[in-house]
Write a structure and sequence with these properties.
- Helices cover 25% and strands 13% of the residues.
- By secondary structure, it is of the alpha/beta class.
- The protein has an 8-stranded parallel sheet. The protein has a 5-stranded antiparallel sheet with strand order 12-13-14-18-16.
- The protein is globular, with a radius of gyration of 23 Å.
- The structure holds alpha-D-glucopyranose (GLC).
- Alpha-D-glucopyranose binds next to loops.
């Protein structure tokens, strides 16, 4: 097995609670993944990334971890997880888990001990407890805001406050504390020893904080922001890399780091730090030829400097599904539009058919770009964002913490439709009811139905991933833009003979270059031309 598989892999993200429900309680679980490993193997992906499956009070979809060395009883057992890891490997699938180091759950024994201990105690030092400001300490220690809305501080009965950059149930750890570093390296080893191939690192750029916890006041020098992307975070990852490299084969990391400064972003994937990081610049690029080309160029140029491969991501469990972004007018697609703002959708009607056409073209683009590609569960079924979930089923803390102005991320987490004509669509056993309601229109999108249809999204993904496996020039390696291509068409060469082209423009169908044969197309190619919102893979034979 090559040890640099991660440089050019296709990785499938499993949001476990929405993937497959083995025991019928309405919540996806380990058994549900095990039962669907043959599906994933058939899809042809190289690895799966499983979102947090640890015991959790579910203040934030499992990203509030109460015990990093166990499985939530709702989802399975540790023994079952071991079995899953072994079975995945038998299917040729590597397994990446999700580690959440910025914060624990408030139910974690460390936080419970901190609550029971006095201000200034060693127990409190593992988190960020401070006295309040103002007379009597009645005000939060500083002006930081939670990502989900509201202040980033909650007061405890003895009067001190603790920091939580996310939900109150997610207290931030103090990474200046050696015990915290030692604990997480030990957690990595715990799972690496069980055969896990790597970790996705949650909020990878926020662990280091300015110990003075100053107010956020205006622009700051790179590396000096009080809680984001501080220089000290890199030292943590050098330590993690040493742990990963001590295994045979070496284990790998992918960072989740939402960053404005893309040059700073590249620092995370220097040779002695993390292997890869999600490319959110690409994810937040609207359906636009020039913007997409800029994002690709920028990504490749920056990563080349540190010799890291790129990643390509369009959707995940935190953003509006890309089919629904691309099916909207441009202003509703791009940067900042990936979170559903309650009122933003009203004036931007969704065209599902258009979104689907573009999502098909985007799949061919993503799988042809140099580096590794991520598929979020349901991308391969052409699922759209579920935007009409009733208020009372919403689970994302964003909804309440934003004062019910931001509906949050539940719409991309709705359980997958596998088979059948109505809910639960084979997600769980007949009669079970999924934790978020599935649209009845997903009847047309079940995996079973798409299996039989060579024109389906599922068939497109399968064929593209299989082809990618046979074409040595895909995956990691160079890319060259094809010259003499009209505005609105994105076309690049991989190797000497392979071209991927996408027509973004409604203006003119693009006549395919002479001498090219079509390997795969995302839609019809009338008269040998590539119409708008269509992608194609071409091969020049005998050039
Ligand atoms: C990451 C996760 C997101 C979670 C947050 C806090 O952004 O992807 O789902 O809410 O971290 O852990």
């Amino acid at each position: 097995m090559p040890t640099d598989w991660w440089r050019g892999a296709v990785i499938y993200q499993i949001y476990i609670r929405g993937f497959g429900d083995g025991d019928g309680d309405g919540i996806g679980d380990v058994a549900g993944i095990r039962a669907r490993l043959p599906y994933l193997a058939r899809l042809g992906v190289d690895a799966i990334w499983i979102t947090p499956w640890y015991p959790s009070p579910m203040a934030d979809g499992g990203y509030d971890v109460a015990d990093y060395r166990d499985i939530d009883p709702v989802l399975g057992t540790l023994a079952e997880a071991d079995t899953l890891i072994a079975e995945a490997h038998q299917h040729g699938l590597r397994v990446i888990l999700d580690i959440v180091p910025n914060h624990t759950s408030s139910a974690h024994p460390w936080f419970q001990a901190a609550l029971g201990a006095a201000p200034g105690s060693a127990e409190r030092e593992r988190y960020l407890f401070r006295d309040g400001s103002g007379a009597g300490g009645d005000l939060p220690p500083n002006n930081w805001r939670s990502v989900f809305g509201g202040p980033a501080w909650t007061r405890v009965p003895d009067g001190q406050w603790y920091l939580h950059m996310f939900a109150p149930g997610q207290p931030d750890l103090n990474w200046a504390e050696p015990a915290v570093r030692a604990e997480f390296e030990d957690i990595l080893r715990f799972w690496f020893d069980r055969g896990v191939d790597g970790f996705r690192i949650d909020v990878a750029n926020r662990m280091a904080k300015d110990p003075a916890l100053p107010d956020l006041a205006g622009p700051v020098a790179p590396g000096q922001h009080p809680y984001q992307d501080r220089d000290e975070v890199h030292d943590i990852y050098r330590g993690w890399r040493r742990v990963a490299d001590s295994y045979d084969p070496p284990r790998v990391f992918v960072a989740e780091a939402w960053m404005q400064d893309q040059d700073r972003f590249a620092l995370y994937v220097r040779g002695d730090e993390l292997h890869t990081a999600f490319n959110f610049d690409f994810l937040t690029t609207p359906w636009d030829c020039a913007a997409t080309r800029d994002s690709i160029d920028g990504t490749l140029a920056r990563l080349r400097r540190v010799d890291a491969p790129a990643t390509w991501v369009l959707s995940n469990h935190d953003v509006v599904r890309h089919l629904s972004r691309f099916g909207r007018p441009p202003h509703a697609q791009g940067r900042g539009a990936h979170f559903v703002q309650l009122n933003a959708l009203a004036d931007s009607p969704l065209d599902i058919e258009l979104g689907t056409r573009r999502a098909r073209a985007a799949a061919l683009l993503l799988l042809a770009l140099p580096g590794s590609g991520y598929v979020y569960q349901g991308d391969e079924l052409g699922l759209w964002e579920v935007e009409d979930l009733p208020d009372d089923v919403l689970q994302d803390p964003t909804w309440e913490q934003s004062g019910r102005t931001n509906r949050g991320r539940d719409g991309c987490r709705v359980p997958l439709p596998w088979s059948g004509d109505g809910p639960p669509f084979g997600f769980g056993p007949p009669g079970s009811s999924p934790w978020l309601p599935q649209p009845s229109a997903w009847k047309a999108l079940t995996a079973a139905r798409q299996e039989e249809d060579p024109g389906s999204m599922l068939s497109l993904y399968r064929t593209a991933i299989a082809l990618r496996g046979t074409l040595d020039v895909l995956g990691d390696g160079p890319l060259a833009w094809l010259p003499d291509v009209p505005d609105g068409v994105l076309a690049f060469l991989r190797g000497r003979d392979f071209v991927c082209a996408v027509n973004y423009s409604a203006a003119e169908p693009w006549p395919l270059p002479a001498g090219a044969s079509v390997l795969l197309a995302s839609g019809p190619l009338p008269d040998g031309r590539l119409p708008a919102d269509t992608g194609v893979w071409l091969e020049f034979r005998g050039r």
